[in-house]
């Protein structure tokens, strides 16, 4: 939902790192996004296209690694990936849950020339 | 040209986190307690703030930051009560971020403020991802929204200190199962405090006021 500012922050971080490395062009940007981050790939691509114009990142390919949601049941300690947003523990049925992964929003790496 | 891979492995929102920490430091230097109030539109954020001003204004030095996509309607209501207020219009943005709060803090006399209430943009998704520098996070949920909201927005419910359940005066007219709601929220967030209130009738609000007063007192004692 907030892809515009995510894309801005991601681009600024990528340009900063490319600058430090004295790169002339960023060819690829590798992102890792958790399923719960609510970030839509297509929307990031859309904003990236115009935000990156005139920078060394223009035309870079965007790669999205999806990090699946993993939850831990606080009652029986089972770790599971919730099917279709059903957060009840498949083992004991409790909805007493800790989020282990799925909220990530990382810039993993960039590929530069 | 050879292609080189630069490993970064950094949180994209790292810059926001850093700015939020700066805000927190500024607030701590002055002993100001900052509370980030989040909710869907219409849940009662402004009503809770106005009630809190009425009840605590004579005891506690307060200020408010109002975050809205557009308009100054809420800020004007706060201003009528003679409380310092800064309006942030996000111009379409769905949440407040630490940079906006940094700018707002520049326009507030922090040394004269014990309690800063920050009304976030009405939204149950984005605001939770953006730290502002606040000390406590509060989510207002209200009966007309339905008791299934913790199931639909689990991230928000699992990352707040308090859930204020507003509009309990409407319970006779709605099929809202308060016990089921409470069970789901506590399941997601065992440490959370849940305050059922009505900003309309005032029911339950004393618990909220005394929670705030205790926090403010603790901060003063620490200084």
The major pleated sheet of chain A works out as: 3 strands, mixed
The CATH class of one domain in chain A turns out to be Alpha Beta
Instruction: Return the CATH class of one domain in chain B.
Output: Alpha Beta
Share of β-strand residues of chain B:
15-25%
SSE string of chain B, helices as H and strands as E = EHEHEHEHEEHHEHEH
List keywords for this structure.
A: 113 residues; hypothetical protein PF0899 fold; three-stranded antiparallel sheet; 2 helices; 6 strands; B: 223 residues; alpha/beta; 37% helix
Descriptive report:
The complex is a heterodimer of chains A (113) and B (223). Helices cover 26% and strands 31% of the residues of chain A. By secondary structure, chain A is an alpha+beta fold. In chain A, helix 1 crosses helix 2. Chain A has 2 helices and 6 strands; from the N terminus they run αβαβββββ. In chain A, the strands form 2 sheets. A 3-stranded mixed sheet of chain A has the order 2-1-6, with helices on one face. Chain A has a domain at 3-69 and 101-112: hypothetical protein PF0899 fold, CATH 3.30.2320. With 223 residues, chain B is of the alpha/beta class. Chain B has a 7-stranded parallel sheet, sandwiched between helices. In chain B, helix 1 packs parallel to helix 4. The longest helix of chain B has 18 residues, at 205-222. The termini of chain B are far apart. In chain B, 46% of the residues are buried. The interface between A and B is large, with 40 and 35 residues. Strand 6 (105-112) of chain A pairs antiparallel with strand 1 of chain B, so a sheet runs across the interface.
């Amino acid at each position: 939902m907030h892809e515009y500012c995510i894309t801005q922050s991601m681009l600024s971080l990528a340009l900063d790192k490319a600058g430090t490395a004295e790169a002339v062009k960023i060819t690829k940007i590798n992102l890792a996004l958790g399923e719960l981050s609510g970030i839509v790939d297509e929307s990031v691509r859309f904003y990236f296209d115009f935000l990156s114009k005139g920078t060394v990142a223009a035309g870079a390919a965007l790669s999205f690694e999806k990090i699946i949601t993993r939850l831990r049941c606080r009652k029986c300690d089972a770790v599971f990936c919730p099917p279709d947003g059903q957060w009840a523990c498949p083992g004991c049925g409790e909805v007493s849950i800790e989020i282990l992964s799925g909220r990530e929003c990382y810039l993993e790496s960039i590929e530069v020339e | 040209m050879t292609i080189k891979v630069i490993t970064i492995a950094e949180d994209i929102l790292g810059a926001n986190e850093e700015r939020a920490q700066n805000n927190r430091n500024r607030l701590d230097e002055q002993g100001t307690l900052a509370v980030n109030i989040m909710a869907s539109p219409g849940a009662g954020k402004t009503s809770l703030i106005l009630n809190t001003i009425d009840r605590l204004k004579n005891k506690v030095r307060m200020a408010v930051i109002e975050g809205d996509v557009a308009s100054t309607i809420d800020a004007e209501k706060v201003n009528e009560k003679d409380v310092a207020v800064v309006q942030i219009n996000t111009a379409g943005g769905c949440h407040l971020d630490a940079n906006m709060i940094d700018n707002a803090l520049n326009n507030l006399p922090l040394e004269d403020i014990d309690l800063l209430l920050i009304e976030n943009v009405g939204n149950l998704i984005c605001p939770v991802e953006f730290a502002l520098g606040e000390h406590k996070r509060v989510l207002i949920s209200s009966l007309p929204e339905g008791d299934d909201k913790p199931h639909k927005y689990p991230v928000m419910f699992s990352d707040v200190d308090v859930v204020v359940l507003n509009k309990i005066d409407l319970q006779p007219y709605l099929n809202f199962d308060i016990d089921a709601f409470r069970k789901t929220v506590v399941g997601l967030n065992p440490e959370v405090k849940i305050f059922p209130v009505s900003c309309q009738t005032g029911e339950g609000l004393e618990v909220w006021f005394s929670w705030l007063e205790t926090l403010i007192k603790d901060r003063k004692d620490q200084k």
